[in-house]
Amino acid sequence: MSRPIYEYEELLAGFDFIRCHQSHLVNKEHIKSWVKEDGGYLILDNGDEIPISRSKKEILTQALIHLK
Question: Which has the least CB within 10 A, 8, 13, 20, 38?
């Protein structure tokens, strides 16, 4: 990547992407489930497991409430 992730975060914010970790942006439409054990991680519809940072849990909770 040629830009810092926060720039992509800003560019993709209007397209249902959310930053759930220092190194991860995910499209909310592809989140299959949220496992809260082991520090917490997301399972995407393709089976990938994406970690959730402690500082992003509240933001992620709010974003997923508005998704449904």
Answer: 38
Q: Which residue has the tokens 């709010």?
A: 62
- E strands present in the chain: 17-21, 24-27, 31-35, 41-44, 49-51
Amino acid in the structure at residue 66: H
Answer CATH for 5-67 from 2.10.110.10, 1.10.110.30, 2.40.50.1020, 3.30.310.50 = 2.40.50.1020
C-alpha distance from residue 7 to each of 25, 36, 43, 47 (Å) = 11, 28, 24, 26
Q: Please state the pTM of the whole predicted model.
A: 0.81
